[in-house]
Design brief:
Length: 251
């Protein structure tokens, strides 16, 4: 089924639904890549059609390395989405990216391994060497940034997202290395999603929600990161997201 979808949103840890979505209908397209994380909920927000998919499933049952990124994105495209806003819960590494900050990164480094990271897998598919110098689509990033400004939502413009394998968090030495590499943020789901979106020709941007200081990055070096803190901070930092989405759809 092909719907006129203005924006598809993929929700991350702590973000399992879009509360303001109206007239919601679940869709579970069958894809050649297997099962999606869960239903795609398509509804309207201020009269615009929005699709929402919880990346980890609605009950957070799919860990980052088992997410079927290919099925998720190809299902969104099959439903008619051309623009995807990825919400990613992350840890903050550098100063500007403390807990509860919202950021729209402009670069990424991929540290993941063993994930199916391309659509060029199956026999007979064309080999694509897509340009990925700007891993996030500049025009969509601009729309996110402008929407945040018009909605009065504070959003850091830029930053480098380091995608790690998970599901465990990182060691302090790993985070120190990522800082030296130039990473500002660390999360487990940024890749291969962004690369696959590029292969499909989807516009794709990331709205990163900082849940915690990454290991050793905060003022208290030996701080233990708990899932409760992560969820609390995501809930607090996410309060501006509905207004941001509305402003994006209005723009
Ligand atoms: N590391 C990796 N992924 C994360 C983190 C982190 O510290 N916090 C939330 N997602």
């Amino acid at each position: 089924m092909h719907l006129d979808i203005d924006l598809a949103v993929i929700g991350g840890t702590g973000l399992y639904q879009l509360a303001d979505l109206q007239d919601v209908e679940p869709h579970q397209p069958v894809t050649r890549y297997g099962a999606l994380s869960g239903p795609v909920r398509v509804g309207t927000l201020d009269g615009k059609r929005v699709a929402f998919l919880a990346r980890h499933g609605e009950g957070h049952s799919v860990p980052p390395h088992r997410v079927n990124y290919r099925a998720n994105l190809s299902a969104l495209q099959a439903l008619g989405a051309t623009r995807v806003l990825a919400l990613n819960t992350v840890g903050g590494i550098t100063e500007r990216f403390g807990p509860r900050v919202l950021a729209c990164p402009d670069q990424l480094i991929d540290y993941t391994w063993g994930r199916v990271s391309t659509y060029c897998e199956e026999e007979g598919t064309d080999v694509l060497h897509v340009d990925f110098g700007d891993p996030y689509t500049p025009v969509l990033r601009r729309r996110v940034l402008d929407a945040a400004a018009s909605a009065g939502v504070t959003l850091v413009d830029g930053g480098c997202y380091g995608a790690t394998q998970g599901p465990r968090l990182e060691t302090r030495a790993e985070i120190a290395r990522m800082r030296r590499d130039g990473c500002d943020l660390v999360g487990m789901t940024g890749m291969p999603e962004a690369g696959l979106a590029r292969e499909l020709g989807l516009d794709y941007a990331c709205l990163a929600i900082v849940a915690n200081w990454a290991a050793g990055a905060g003022p208290q070096v030996d701080e233990v990161i708990t899932f409760e803190d992560v969820l609390d901070n995501v809930a607090a930092a996410s309060s501006g997201i509905p207004a941001l989405l509305r402003a994006m759809l209005a723009g």
